[in-house]
Design a protein that fits this description.
The complex is a heterodimer of chains A (94) and B (580). Chain A is an alpha+beta fold and 94 residues long. Chain A contains three helices and four strands; from the N terminus they run βαββαβα. In chain A, strand 2 and strand 3 form a beta hairpin. Chain B has 580 residues and is an alpha/beta fold. Chain B has 23 helices and 16 strands. In chain B, the strands form two sheets. Chain B has an eight-stranded mixed β-sheet with strand order 1-8-7-3-4-5-6-2. Chain B has an eight-stranded parallel β-sheet with strand order 15-14-13-12-11-10-9-16. In chain B, helix 12 packs parallel to helix 14. Classes of the chains: A alpha+beta (94), B alpha/beta (580).
């Protein structure tokens, strides 16, 4: 980890009606990839790479699912903010 | 060594290294590779993903233009998924750990991944399994395309092993001139692989079941097309034995080639015309070298099956002209596009049909796609000034179809005249007689055409209601079934009494045990794959018409195909014992 690396965790709840399907996953991954930091997305004991569409699809996060976002890196705070906003905005879906 | 038995469809023995092709829509056979090949497979995975991704990007852009970016975002997922390095890593791990081929590793990974979606509780997410399947198919297509491409770049000659080959694949492989022989899991005696292999004179065995899962790329394979046997990794002494067999066959071929400049006439001087069947203009040269006096069947649809864009009128014209010029005044019968059914219209999304052989194919397809049909007729008529061309319409089942096709031809003729083109006004027009309907109405049809060409492959399949590529019923497919023999007689009789030309361009024309029967019925023109011309000529030169007439009369009186076959075999054996 770089020197001024930060570790940030935040819980978010999926509220769009269709859940985390193909299009939301892509929006999520696209935003995550704009940042240097890594991001893990946890659902219970399952943890996936938030920058991988392949893994994100397997989360099976339907509406109401709570997810833990775990970011590490210099821009971890900005990353978490951007992702939390996307989730709260229902992925611009509904 | 292990040995597999199949159906020998093109005679001869060859020994060579195998190249195994995976095809779209088929389950990829499990295959493990030697360790030194794994790096290549890993790189193939990267290239496959890159190719699939750029293809999706193009489709997405095109779709966005038509339907807006909102809907096009669906492709965005496919594109993003393909850009993700994770799937590639997992697939490459399978290759390294289990020695899988790229294609097999992709299919294993994708199948497992897809199953995760099917197990999800949300129906909406379960549905995503379809997207995954779509991505999987795309990847497999690219990994296959890559394998096919490799073949065109090969320096050495190879034996092609495949689950099945599409007409366009067979043609593409043929053009590499590096194929020693074909062996396929599926297929029957009249499959396209068989037809093309016979035309090229290279050995082929089809209907081998699970051959693709037994052979790995690089294995030494022997194809014995004469006996329908494929041997995998034979030892040194077995290789020697096969080599001497192969040498013997070269001698026989050599003896036949000496017949090339002798006329095809019976012992008592009745003249017979032998013509070649071709797929491409370049094939004319092979035909002539085998002693053909012209081309009785130019399967023009192969110009459309080469991949890439549909040939324009101008491109078609150039192909027809090239063939005519190579023929130097000898006849060329062009069959208008015979697509549909097993051969698909490339680049055009056809709705799947319940029963494609009874569906929209051949002349029916042309009459429903008039701009397409018109372009072909224009190209043929424009070429007519460069040689002796005839036009043939396939799959005619009723006289009105013939009249519609002729009407289009007349329109085209008028157009060309107005545009100032020079062409032959009276190019002969004929039909393929390949349905029982056409055979039963042969007399009426004969009054409106200049010639008939009997297409036995379809005539047999439609008369006997047998799918010739279905191994479960393929044994019922027999041109010597009395029903077929009676129809053949009707067609030849009708042509003779209406004084029009009649030839046969199906497989039967080249079957030595049928030669006497056909001559005795009155047939004097035979069109076939060029590879069969020398042996057919030898057969004809050994027959006396008195015998042929007697044989034909007798053969028409049997009740079962078994009796007809046994009788013809016996009579043929009396004349040329070595061909039966």
């Amino acid at each position: 980890m770089a020197e001024n690396s930060t570790h940030i965790e935040r819980e978010v709840t999926i509220i769009n009606s269709q859940g985390l399907h193909a299009r939301p996953v892509m929006r999520f991954v696209d935003i995550a990839n704009q940042f240097q930091s890594t991001v893990k997305v946890k659902k219970g004991t399952v943890s996936v790479d938030g920058k991988s569409p392949m893994e994100m699809m397997l989360l099976e996060a339907t509406s109401g699912t709570r997810l833990q976002l775990v970011a590490d890196g210099q821009d971890a705070a900005a990353l978490i903010d951007a992702l939390a906003k996307l989730v709260a905005d229902k992925f611009h879906e509904d | 060594m292990s040995v597999k038995r199949g159906i020998g469809v093109s005679p001869g023995v060859v020994i060579g290294r195998a190249v195994v092709l995976d095809t779209e829509e088929t389950r990829v056979p499990k295959r493990t590779l030697p360790t030194e090949q794994l790096e290549h497979e890993s790189q193939l995975v990267d290239r496959t993903f890159a190719a699939a991704r750029s293809e999706v990007a193009l489709e997405r852009a095109a779709f966005a233009e038509r339907a807006g970016t909102e809907l096009a975002d669906i492709f965005g997922f496919h594109e993003g998924w393909l850009a993700d390095p994770k799937p590639r890593k997992e697939i490459q791990q399978l290759i390294q750990e289990k020695n899988y081929s790229a294609a097999y590793a992709i299919s294993v990974f994708m199948r497992r991944y897809r199953r995760r979606f099917q197990e999800m509780t949300s129906p909406f997410l379960q549905e995503r399994a379809k997207d995954i399947l779509d991505i999987e198919k795309r990847l497999l297509r690219h990994v296959g395309a890559e394998a096919r491409q490799d073949i065109t770049e090969l320096d050495e000659q190879v034996i092609v092993v495949a689950h099945d080959l599409t007409p366009s694949q067979t043609v593409m492989l043929d053009r590499t001139r590096r194929v020693l022989g074909f062996a396929t899991d599926l297929g029957g005696a009249t499959s396209h692989t068989a037809i093309v292999a016979r035309g090229l004179g290279i050995p082929a065995v089809v209907g081998l079941g699970n051959l693709t899962s037994l052979v790995s790329g690089g294995d030494t394979v022997v194809i014995d097309g004469t006996h329908g046997v494929v041997a995998i990794n034979p030892d040194a002494s077995q290789i020697e034995a096969y080599k001497s067999q192969a040498a013997q066959q070269v001698e026989v071929q050599h003896a036949l080639s000496e017949l090339r400049d002798l006329p095809a006439e019976t012992k008592d001087g009745v003249k017979v015309t032998l013509l070649g069947n071709i797929e491409f203009p370049e094939d004319v040269e092979v035909c002539l070298s085998k002693g053909a006096e012209g081309v009785g069947l130019f399967r023009s649809e192969f110009l459309f099956l080469q991949g890439g864009a549909e040939p324009s009128e101008e491109e078609q014209f150039q192909s027809y002209r090239q063939a005519l010029e190579l023929l130097g005044g000898r006849p060329l019968i062009i069959r208008t596009v015979d697509l549909g059914a097993d051969k698909l219209f490339p680049g055009r999304q056809a709705e799947p049909e319940q029963n494609p052989f009874l569906g929209l194919r051949s002349i029916r397809l042309c009459l429903q796609n008039l701009p397409f049909f018109r372009a072909q007729l224009r190209a043929i008529m424009r070429a007519s000034n460069h040689g002796n061309v005839g036009i043939m319409f396939p799959l005619i089942t009723q006289i009105t179809e013939l009249r519609q096709a002729r009407y289009m031809l007349n329109l085209v003729t008028e157009e060309l005249e107005e545009e100032g083109y020079e062409f032959r006004y009276k190019a002969p027009v004929g039909i393929m007689v390949e349905t029982p309907a056409a055979a039963l109405c042969a007399r009426e049809l004969a009054r409106e055409v200049d010639f008939f060409s009997i297409g036995t492959n379809d005539l047999i399949q439609y008369t006997l209601a047998v799918d010739r590529t279905n191994e479960k019923v393929a044994t019922l497919y027999n041109g010597l079934n009395p029903a077929v023999v009676k129809l053949l007689k009707m067609v030849v009789d009708a042509a003779i009494s209406e004084k029009i030309d009649v030839s046969m361009c199906g497989e039967m024309a080249a079957d030595p045990i049928c030669t006497m029967l056909l001559l005795g019925m009155g047939l004097r023109k035979f069109s076939m794959v060029s590879g069969s011309i020398p042996s057919t000529k030898r057969m004809i030169r050994s027959i006396a018409m008195t015998d042929a007439n007697r044989v034909a009369t007798r053969a028409l009186q049997f009740e079962t195909e078994r009796e007809v076959m046994n009788y013809l075999r016996e009579e043929t054996r009396k004349i040329l014992p070595d061909v039966v």
